[in-house]
Design goal:
With about 450 residues, this protein is an alpha/beta fold. Helices cover about 40% and strands about 15% of the residues. It folds into two domains: about 350 residues, Alpha/Beta hydrolase fold, catalytic domain (Rossmann fold, 3-Layer(aba) Sandwich), CATH 3.40.50; about 60 residues. The C terminus is likely disordered.
């Protein structure tokens, strides 16, 4: 009997020890970094993420999105504007714009070349008072899925068709989205995507009943490639007058630029794209700049930490992406698909948009690829009835919190902004000023309002 009691006691001790050991192991596992909660805290999670269909005939292709509701909306959500961000590239992920430029949280690294990441609040986020939707466009970019490389769009009409399908699918997710005004924004090669989707929406709306129309509020293009043939012809003059090249180099660069223009006019799209690449390589070699994206920088933008962050399994899991999915911040397949589209202009789309919608063009002062000069050059060639008035409109000094932020020129539906102290990635370089710009433009406040012009010089300092 005593032996049986001893055996039972030993069994209880063994059971207690086993339970304690399992609890200890569980504690170790739960506290072992990295975890999705430590790398991607709950407060940094988007409001919604997921995939949107782009083509009923291609059910395997889908566009990834991440949506952040307004942090402090100043109107009922059913009336709160929604900004839709499209990255350039072509083929670069909008998650880069999210976590490096204008999203509510930015990726930083605790030390140089370290993969110890930290997400920090971005005081200049574009979703302070607006909703903010990031789309990985076209399919094949970022976390978006292309069922086959041949299904990746090869022109702006195809890009716009996919975007329209994705946007209408997103609007159907929640009834309040239907009434919210949509503003499309993007930079660089999105200087083609943004006009394309705006143009497509206006054309589609004309054939749809009022209840089915997309509520387009306007489009914003930052450091955009919109009319490539006109823009490529400005590089030499821009670099020369910036003191970066001499007269002999200017002549060499102008010769190369003329070749791009010639090939573009002939419709030799592949050759024209390749020739433009050579112009940029020449400019890079002549100037010795760390990056043409910002001639004031001694080193390029520190983007690698964002790329590494988005490749983390914990981050993919937090964003609702399959952990096995390969991630490239910029897709070679998408770039190849749109290679022959590169030098084609969408200026006519901007001209059409200006008749029925408002357009914002903004550039960072230091950008040498898609510069202030290049944008002013193509704007002058537009067939728009308001152009003559725009060109003589006063270029006003723009201040944010009493500090000099840049310059605004506006007439009718067109606003042009030069952002001081910024390069190609304006929201990265001037977060608070870019936030003030987009908010005032959408809400038509201050220099972006439609009130009667005040000519008094002293008004700049009131």
């Amino acid at each position: 009997m005593q032996s049986m009691s001893s055996m039972f006691l030993n069994f209880l001790l063994l059971l207690a020890f086993s339970l304690f050991f399992l609890a200890f192991l569980n504690h170790l596992t739960a506290s072992s970094p990295p975890t999705s909660t430590s790398l991607f805290p709950n407060e940094a999670l988007p409001t919604k993420t997921g995939y949107l269909s782009v083509n009923p005939a291609d059910s395997s292709s889908a566009m990834f999105y991440a949506f952040y509701e307004a942090q402090n909306p100043i109107s009922p959500l059913s009336q709160t504007p929604l900004i839709i961000w499209l990255q350039g590239g072509p083929g670069c992920s909008s998650m880069f714009g999210n976590f490096f430029e204008l999203g509510p949280w930015r990726v930083t690294s605790r030390k140089a070349r370290s993969e110890t990441f930290v997400l920090e609040p971005n005081p200049g986020s574009w979703n302070r008072i607006f909703g903010l939707l990031f789309l990985d466009n076209p399919i094949g970019s970022g976390f978006s899925i292309a069922s086959a490389t041949e299904n990746i769009p090869r022109d702006q009409l195809s890009v716009a068709k996919h975007l329209f399908a994705a946007i209408t699918s997103f609007i159907e997710l929640e009834p309040s989205f239907k009434s919210r005004p949509l503003y499309f924004a993007g930079e660089s090669y999105a200087g083609k995507y943004v006009p394309a989707i705006g143009y497509y929406i206006l054309k589609a709306n004309a054939n749809l009943p009022v209840s089915q129309r997309v509520n387009l509020g306007g489009v914003a293009i930052g450091n955009g490639l919109t009319d490539p043939m006109t823009q490529v012809a400005t590089h030499a003059a821009n670099a020369y007058h910036s003191g970066l090249i001499n007269e002999r180099q200017t002549s060499e660069l102008e010769k190369a630029q003329r070749e791009v223009v010639k090939l573009t006019k002939m419709g030799k799209w592949k050759e024209a794209t390749d020739a433009r690449t050579q112009v940029l390589l020449m400019l890079q070699r002549m100037t010795g700049l760390a990056t043409l994206h910002d001639f004031s920088k001694k080193v390029p933008y520190e983007t690698e930490m964002v790329f590494a962050f988005l490749r983390k399994e914990e981050v993919k899991k937090a964003l609702g992406v399959k952990e096995s999915m390969a991630y490239d911040v910029c897709s070679d397949d998408v770039a190849a698909a749109l290679h022959d589209d590169f030098m084609k202009s969408v200026k006519f789309m901007v001209e059409f948009l200006l008749k029925e919608s408002k357009v914002l063009l903004y550039q960072g002062q230091f950008d040498m690829r898609d510069s202030v000069v290049s944008t002013e050059a193509w704007v002058k060639t537009m067939a728009w009835e308001g152009l003559s008035q725009f060109l003589i409109a006063e270029r006003k000094v723009w201040r944010v919190n009493e500090g000099l932020a840049g310059y605004v020129q506006k007439w009718g539906n067109l606003s042009h902004v030069v952002v001081l102290g910024a390069g190609h990635l304006v929201p990265t370089d001037q977060a608070l000023n870019s936030q003030a710009m987009i908010e005032d433009w959408v809400l038509e406040r201050g220099l972006f309002g439609y009130e009667e012009e005040v000519s008094s010089f002293s008004s700049l300092f009131d």
